[in-house]
């Protein structure tokens, strides 16, 4: 597998890195502590074309491969993880429409997703549980030419700013084969049947809004059924979660990298016992371990993304990348606080934010307990 980046890939990643250094890092701390939606930065991401990263060029997007796409998520998260949240489930919706949508759905939705006229969200998790996807309860029944959706979703990101939700609902019998995906647009005529809840108060991941999303006999046309055929929802969304898990692994690498870069700079400046703390071996070794872990995690997500680019199933690789990168990130951000000493525990430095953002990676897009099960199943499948 050739994992070297081309000049075009490097240029785009570099452009995002510059945007992060010039515009995101200086603004992130204030936005985070105000829990403020980053309206201006989101406009800049739109100008950079980032909402169309996963949309094919013929539909008005950048048509990026998943290796580059994941690198972009690493760079954004190095600046502020919440920015990656604005694009994360939007990217999954783009993937679902591009991969499973009918020609009509692709033509109608992809250009609007690329321009950010439509902002995507994934409505999968329910109040009774996110891990047991096959048993979710939101229902969709046919009524004439329409589907009518009823039920509640929980922890949905981008509910407030988003306006196109890939919603998984039960159209048939029990289990995974009874699920279908609907592309539900938040329009004025659905204002009374599709509502978002108040934003949840979260440990981290501030600014971007996450809330409940309720479908109260919400009527959508038959053309909203992804791919036009019921019963395919589980398979579609699991394929989409491969992209989501690569993306989460890349975000974890970005946050860990921010912790490393800040800690390296602090360790050069902070003097104890007459020398910079980086000259104390115990501190230097922490930095060495953080850097080594980050490098390993990056290669795992790149390998998974390259497999996705080759059109191959990569649930095992994407799960390994997310499992390793997320646990690595919780370790690295805690070490970052340790290197900053008492100051690391205050909001004078960004490292406390990295530490608060890290646990989302071990829970979201499939908890690490569930991912270990996915990996073990994959190992058995391959051994046979
Ligand atoms: C900030 C945030 C944003 C989110 N955004 C979205 C979004 O945009 N769209 C969306 O659909 N969801 C979203 N989620 C939901 C997220 O994907 C779920 O929280 C996650 O899948 C876990 O589901 P749960 O919270 O219901 O936990 P549960 O499924 O109730 O699990 C609770 C605990 O039990 C463990 N567990 C459960 N079953 C098993 C098992 N069989 N074996 C071993 N351990 C098990 C889990 O690993 C976990 O530790 C978001 C969550 C958060 C916190």
Walk me through what this model shows.
- The chain is α+β, with helices and mostly antiparallel strands.
- It folds into 3 domains: 7-114, Butyryl-Coa Dehydrogenase, subunit A, domain 1 (Orthogonal Bundle); 120-232, Beta Barrel (Butyryl-CoA Dehydrogenase, subunit A, domain 2), CATH 2.40.110; 234-383, Butyryl-CoA Dehydrogenase, subunit A, domain 3.
- It has helices spanning 7-34, 39-47, 66-79, 81-100, 103-114, 233-269, 281-309, 315-339, 351-363, 368-383, and strands spanning 120-123, 139-143, 146-157, 164-170, 179-185, 194-196, 210-221, 271-272, 275-276.
- The strands form 3 sheets. Strands 2-3-7-6 form a 4-stranded antiparallel beta sheet, covered by helices on one side. It has a 3-stranded mixed beta sheet with strand order 1-4-5.
- The chain is globular and about 80 Å long.
- The model has no long low-confidence stretch (mean pLDDT 97).
- The chain binds flavin-adenine dinucleotide.
- Flavin-adenine dinucleotide (FAD) binds next to strand 1, strand 3, helix 9 and helix 10.
Present as ligands are: flavin-adenine dinucleotide
- Radius of gyration, in angstroms, nearest whole number: 21 Å
The CATH class of the largest domain, by name, is Mainly Alpha
Distance between the termini: 24 Å
Return the average pLDDT rounded to an integer. 97
Helix and strand composition category = alpha+beta
Topology of helices and strands:
Elements: H1 7-34, H2 39-47, H3 66-79, H4 81-100, H5 103-114, E1 120-123, E2 139-143, E3 146-157, E4 164-170, E5 179-185, E6 194-196, E7 210-221, H6 233-269, E8 271-272, E9 275-276, H7 281-309, H8 315-339, H9 351-363, H10 368-383
Parallel strand pairs: 1-4
Antiparallel strand pairs: 2-3, 3-7, 4-5, 6-7, 8-9
Bound molecules: flavin-adenine dinucleotide.
Flavin-adenine dinucleotide binds at residues 89, 121-125, 129-131, 155-157, 202, 205, 210, 360, 363-367, 369-370.
